[in-house]
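Hi everyone,

Forwarding the result from last night's run.
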Amino acid sequence: MGAGETSTRSRRRAVPWAVLALWIGLLAVVGPFAAKLSDVQHDRAVDYLPSSADSTRVAKTEDRLPGGETTELVLVYHRDGGLRPADRDTAARQVAAITRANPLTGTPRAVPSDDGSTLMYPVASTAPGTDEKKRDAFVNDVRDVARPTDGMNVVVGGPGALATDAGEVYDSLGGPLLYTTVAVVAILLILIYRSPLLWLVPLAVAGVADYLSMGVAYGLHQAFGTSVSGQSSGVMTILVFGAGTDYALLIISRYREELRRVERPYDAMKEALRGCGPAVLASSGTVAAGLLCLLAADLNSSRGMGPAGTVGVLCALVAMLTLLPAVLVLLGRRVFWPLVPVHGAEPRQRRSLFAAMGTSAGRRPLVVLASGAALLGALALGTLNLPGPLKQQDSFAHRPDSVTAMETLARAYPGRGTQPITVITPTGRADTTLSAARGHTGVASAERGRSGGGWTEISVIARGAPQSAAETATIKALRADLRGSYVGGPSAQQIDLQDTNARDRLVVVPIVLVSVLLILVLLLRSLVAPLLLVAAVIAVWGAALGIGGLVFGPLLGFEGTDPGLGLLSFVFLVALGVDYGIFLMHRMREESLSGAEPAAAALTALRTTGGVIASAGLVLAATFAVLTNMGLLQLVELGFVISVGVLLDTFLVRTYLVTSASVALGRKVWWPGGLSREPDTEQAGRQEPLPVG
């Protein structure tokens, strides 16, 4: 045995172990930071808003007033048919006990309903401040005292209780979301690989990548102040497992092919990474670029989701290109048992579903293309049936006490608001502002509150119910009339969320389209193919939202649609849809460069990559579908639209429409690149390498 061969064998053994050792060291460094990510997570509505929003200015000014931010609750005592004297005595005793046990800003006073069925006690405290854990403890302490007795219903509502209930849902996402995602991916990988061992490898590597992403996300927050919310951290986990498993499927599929041609696993993996590595790098780079466009959003939650999603995708990419190959090489061919690829053996030729689909698409490409486009267009009309903006009390999949309280108050006090609107005005103009607020037709009452730092707080009660059209009109009118003052509070925050989301859609959507298109043009060296892919993913987005419109209200009974659904679903579906398009077009380009005719190249690409893309699409759709089992409707809606969109993209657009369009266009699909010209006009044997970034 020569020295060169001995050196090569030593390298084959040493490199995978070295990679594994590097990952163990990396996790040891990142581990302490990953555990801290939940500590910097904030899910208050005001944390999502830009600093320029009126309601954000109000919240920040309240923090500087004596006592700091106020946690406001409403104790609701109700009995159908009317409260009894004993009920009123019980309510008074409970409120007195709460007052003795907690530092409140004033003595709670009962507000009876006209029909005598309900008593409302507004309760407020500045003791929790902006500390969410102290706020939750205060709310839970009040709930421990305010309990139902003798058939009288007692619930605690108000902004503070709503925030606590929402926080509990977000806090509960971490474990169930991770466990459910792992279970779903595991089941799909077992079905795909039909191996008792192989499925564990990509799943374990994805778990490592998820742990790494949490540490990196915490580091970004500490270094640059990026926003971290329950939604962004949850989506990051989904992307790590979804996108990471997709990359693993592509790599393992190519590795299996190479094991039949190459004797040693180390050399087979080198060839596999050389063959599919560029596509994986390009697709992950495109997804990351699309997500980073969210940095142009004004909404903190959307802007924070850009870096979080990018961290998830890149951590998954690094793990799948380094740790996954190392583990597979160390395990050798036996990891594929019982379907072990034998060196020199030809793969079994089986009738491929995607070959049949490609043949049908290639036989009448224009008919297939027109029919598919008409179907997507018809589905997109369902967007006209989407419910209006989602109200705060309608955002829970299972109604907590805070929502029950709001519903009870809305019925019992139809001519009075039950949630304060906060006006912050310069102290020198406080009397004028107070008088103007009281004189407004939409205001039931207004009271002067704390003063400090040159600002005065005025608490306004509208005549309309919280987040009703009447209250919204009152808030907008107050903002227009009270010049130099700021109008905030929970309902105002929801208005600002809607307005900011509308602004972000106008800004971010064009940036995403232009960025993705430019990357595809550079990658594919064509203009037509990138335009085809971008048009396809836009059509998928419209159709997926349309299906949501047909399902959310009529079938699921949802009362509204999250204002951020359109933007976030667009970014994810465009980025992830183009991801699959790159897999297909990469193989199509390889076949064209090898001399295949356009139609043959398109059909061969579909036949060879269709199974991998279908498996990847199923995994990604299933991981996002996990969100539909969470407790907040904005996550349910986002998970539904993205999972439906991925399935449409995988089984309709990618297999039929893109393939049929490529067949119909022929060489024009690569215009104006060299592949768009006839073979006799090109240099013989010319091979254009595919750029990777």
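Residues 207 and 241 are 7 Å apart (CA to CA).

Cheers,
N.
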